[in-house]
Structures are given as structure tokens and as C-alpha cells.
Amino acid sequence: MKVLMINGSPHEKGCTNAALTVVSQELKNQGIDSETVWIGNGLVRGCIGCGACKNIGKCTFGDDPVNAIGEKIKAADGYIFGAPVHYASPCGAMVSAMDRLFTAFGNHMQFKPAASVVSARRAGTTASYDVLNKYIGINSMIAVPSTYWNMVHGNVAEDILKDEEGVTVMRALASNMAWLLKLLDNAKGTALEKPAIVPKVKTNFIR
Questions:
Q1: CA pair distance 164, 42, nearest whole angstrom
Q2: What are the pLDDT digits (tens) for 6-26?
Q3: Which residues of 6-25 are buried (b: 16+ CB within 10 A; e: fewer)?
Q4: CB of 30 within 8 A of CB of 105?
Q5: Does pTM top 0.90 for this prediction?
Q6: Is 89 helix (H, G, I), strand (E, B) or coil?
Q7: Is the separation of the CB atoms in 178 and 149 below 8 Å?
Q8: In this structure, what are the phi and psi dihedrals at residue 32, rounded to the nearest 5 degrees?
Q9: What region does 7 belong to: left with phi over 0, alpha with psi -120 to 50, or beta?
């Protein structure tokens, strides 16, 4: 079993990575593999709503990391989405990546456990946490709990380990993720493996 962790920070070894590293270490302690992928600090295009991904199985834009991450998404059993706070919201590149990942590869994440992690110097964490969790909630995924909202505080990576409560929250998140993955693995091949799929019905306010 493997958890894919996406580091949406423009700083590869910054605060977000420090939080994800704590999660990774605890997952390892629980017998679960993990991989962290960094979206980089270059161009990440936003979704343009063209719908091409529904026909070709990937995003039509191939000049940034999104499709490569999407291929890793297919093979993963669980997910952690990590991002820093920029102006009380997840950084723009992460939002652009998430829009396209869930549009093009969302079907590969359905019914799998996932969680969001946010980092900030001081504030904007709860708003950013809410934004990232919306992706999980709209895609029939299993939101993994912890002992508090999944956030850490610090200005540089070294500060994160000084946030004792934040570190504890990351460790509890990893432990709960491992527990859920093991439960789901035990359900494979049984009637409990996946719930019945309820067809989506879309309605418009203006007809």
C-alpha cells in the first residue's frame, strides 16, 4: 500500500515539505509506503474547462507536471495534498494543479482515503484547509481525520518541528491513514470493497 503526497509549495524543502516528512515517517512506522512529489516552481496552467481530458484520459496541457502526477495518482492507494498559505488561500499553483488533477484523474481517486495539510507563518490556515478539502468532498473520497485540523505553523522548515501540536497532528493523521488503508485492504474482494455508485444528476438554476 502506498500514499502519494503532493507538495504544492514553490519551495521544495520548505514548511509544507517538513509537515509531509513527518507524515511520511509515521506512515513508515505503520508499515505504509509513501512518495512525495513536488509540483515545482515553474508554470502550472489553470484548467480552461475544455473537456478534452474526458476523451484522452489526461489533461490536454502537457508542458507542466500535472499529467506526470496524474500517472502516479492511478497507482496510489491514498493521498495527502499539501500546500502553503498565500493570502489566506492555498498557493495558486496548487489550486491550478488540483483543478486539473481532479478533472482529468479524479475517477482514479474515488473511494480512496485522502487528507489535506496546510502550512502558514500565522493565519489563513483554516480557509486554505477548507479549499483543499472541497476536492475530497466532491469526489466520493474518504476524508482522513486527525486530532485537530491538519495545519502547521512556522516561517521556515526548521520551525515546523518546534510546533509540537502541529507535529502531533501530522503523526495522528498518518496513523489514521494507515489504519484506514489496512481496513480497505481487508475489504478487497468482498461486498464491502466499494459502495454502490449513485448516478450523478445535474440540475441548472436557470432553464
A1: 32
A2: 999 999 999 999 999 999 999
A3: bbbbbeeebbbbbbbbbbbe
A4: no
A5: yes
A6: strand
A7: no
A8: -115, 130
A9: beta
